[in-house]
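--- STAGE predict ---
source: upstream dedup step, 1 unique chain passed
mode: sequence only
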Amino acid sequence: MSKKNKKNEFIYFHKKPTTRREFLASGLVPFTASFFLPPILDVLARNGVAQAAETLNKCGGGGLHPYAPFVNVNLAGGASISGNVLPKLPDGSRLPNYNQLGYGGNSGQNIVAEKPFGAKGPEFNAGNAGSAGSGLLQGIRSVASPTTLANTTVVSFCIQSQDDSRSNAYDMSGLLAKAGITGSFLPGLGENRNQKAIIEPPAPLNVRRVDDVRAAIGVAGRLNALNDFQKDKLFKTIRNLSSVQRKRIARFAGGEVLSQLVECATGKNVDLVSANGLDIDPSQNASFANVWNNLGSAREEQFATVVYNVLKKNAGVGNLTMGGYDYHGNNRNTTDGRDIEAGTVLGQVLESAAVLGQPIVVSLTTDGSVSSRDGTNFSSDSGNRGMALMFFYSPTGRPEQINSQVGAFTKGQVVDTTFVMSRPESGTASMFAHYLAFNGRLGEASSIVGRQVSPEILKEENVLITNVKKF
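--- STAGE serialize ---
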């Protein structure tokens, strides 16, 4: 099939895309990522005064946070994660059949599966009648080394979600920011295109390449004409203004903006405007760049920039969005290829952490899911077959887990809604609790999440990662 006909295939089964999200789902817009820029800094940037970034104390820089970096990979449109990882019944046993999940027409108890992430990890599709096996796993293995996989734990989350919709509350960025996962001079990278979960995240700033990072931490407008020495002197002068001087300045036209600059002109921002060698460029680390094919494509340059700065803790949360994941109406060769692409990105993120010697938590989410009538091709949207995954990597060894699945499916091959995981917001709260447990901080979950989800979700017996920091 020609490339033109493949693009028309989406329009045949759906209305003509008009929004950015619909273009992402169709694959006409293939990927996106961005930075989070705090509102006060956005004001300063628009006025050409400064673009220094906010961290722990408004915009002053709070050093490196001590927690595992976090990256979300979102598949826009509605991929079949449950077609890659076998969902189980509440008692942990297999479903009677998996034919509606794309495993083949006779995929019952004798289905072929493997556990690549340890004996307590989930089962991945190893290839069955009409199914070539898990494309996610194939993509991961194409990049991540056996040692990296041996140091990775995976947990699956059975979550019912809306199809083809950005209203799914999968965005954990606000929760993570409240927990203290912020960067040393950038608060977060990447835009999660889903609805926020419980807490509003910082506003995003799109990033396409490392030059966008340089622009975000520099100065704008006429100030950019100053040399580094002059910028350094200017920021130090502003920082040393007395409170009386600040009040006088605020009375003049434009004084309010300058007063905001005073609050941002801390020692950290003095360092930023005068620094010549900030470690923000992934191309300068040969081993890291090699993981991303030496940044050979626009997407690899974009994603590598986000992941590198998150792992270096220059920034907080990283979000990567991949377009073209509305599987409804696409043939199996197309959807399997998309799975491999997503798995490759997951593998690149995990291997990046290994190369830099850092722990990382990676979540994989999507908008709804799909079902298969013939056991192979995905013919219908089916958000009640939704699933999300979390990958926990530690350079010191595989993190300990109690079990592999949160929530469950029924014998009818759909999410069991009697569990508290029946909506994305609850699932995201559970994933956040697992992140905290990986950092040995599960006891803080209730105070951060609040009362908007069932407290059962946050209890230690419902968290499958042991509450011990092991990195």
